[in-house]
Amino acid sequence: MEINQKLTVNRKFLALGIPLLVLFFTVALGLSSYAVKYPELYTGITYDLILTIPLLVYFLSKRKISKFIISSFVSIGIITAYFVIPETEKFHFNLIRYILLPTVEVVIIGSIVYYTFKTVNGTNKKTNERTDYLIAFQNSGTKAFNNNFLGKIFGSELAMFHYAFFNWKSKPLSENEFSYHEKSGTISLLIGILMILIIETVGVHFLLTKWSSIAAWVLTLLSVYSFIMLCAHLKAITKRPHMLHSDSLELKLGLLGTTNIPFQKIEKIEFVQTIDDTLKSHACQFTPLGDLESFNTVIHLKDQIDCEFIYGIKRKYKTLLINLDKIGPFEKKYNTLYDLSQKMKA
């Protein structure tokens, strides 16, 4: 056992140590007078920094290293090459930066989208359940990058564009699904924010143009991105209802989060009209707009669980506050499924 652990450690050391050593000598060569005397060396230095070293990491690790580490070495190589390679010798650097890397990005995005819809279509043939594209894209992203955090960030971004520009078809709620936006005013408030964002963006853009056109366009692009994100979040709220499964409660938060709670972790569920401020301060406010919304349901847990928010960020809570449009049907269905799950265990 100890020998295997030592071999694993040594393999990781080789997979990272040798490429870092090559990186050091490549940079030293690029900064030396020898490279100035023989400028054709800059071509090899460029490809070594951006392609050879990441490939070295990949093959020395026997293809088991995280794609996040590989992409990190590529990023380090690009940044290093930018400063090491003289402007007059950056033809191959620009070729990689503007043609090869965007092509790779398109291939990665295309593969994630392909596997997402392949998985979704396969699932839809077996069940008639509502498709959760946020989870589907995050799972495909995690498989593509072999890294949970990076995959969920990338998958969340793709899901955002999917909800914003596609997925227009509506589907009625099943008996296991429960909305949380119809009585809260969330949709109206988000539409109001979108209208204000449009007006403010146009006005601020023209004002900033007088000072700096670059700053004006940067702010405008950020506003457009915010607009797309809010539109996607708005649609996701309506298309990602809370769901009761046979042995768990799955809570959705538009694009901002997902939390799955096994029934065995639930101590009790209270349906209330008002929430004490003290409870609000330490509980997880699992609603799209937090304090701006009212809560009518308190979920008390036996132990702390991870509540997952945007980009896979997790926080531990023992009490959750949510809002339900229809408490009666939810309570009835929860009690039925909970009793069935207890009988299955007995």
Q: Would you write up a description of this structure?
A:
This protein has 346 residues and is of the alpha+beta class. The chain has three domains: 2-89; 102-165, no CATH class; 170-346, no CATH class. 62% of the residues lie in helices and 13% in strands. The protein is built from eleven helices and eight strands. The chain has helices spanning 2-31, 33-37, 41-60, 67-84, 91-126, 133-145, 148-165, 186-209, 213-239, 277-282, 327-345; strands at residues 177-178, 242-244, 248-252, 257-262, 266-271, 284-285, 297-309, 314-322. Strands 1, 2, 3, 4, 5, 6, 7 and 8 form an eight-stranded mixed beta sheet that branches. Strand 7 (297-309) and strand 8 form a beta hairpin. Mean pLDDT is 83; it is low at 1-7.
Counting copies of identical and different chains, the oligomeric state is single chain
Number of domains: 3
Q: Report how far the terminal alpha carbons are from each other.
A: 40 Å
Our count of helices gives 11
User: What form results from the Cα inertia axes?
Assistant: globular
Largest sheet: 8 strands, mixed
The share of residues in helices is 55-70%
Order of helices and strands: HHHHHHHEHHEEEEHEEEH
Integer average pLDDT: 83
Strand segment tally = 8
Show unreliable segments.
1-7
Strand content: 5-15%
Category by helix and strand content: alpha+beta
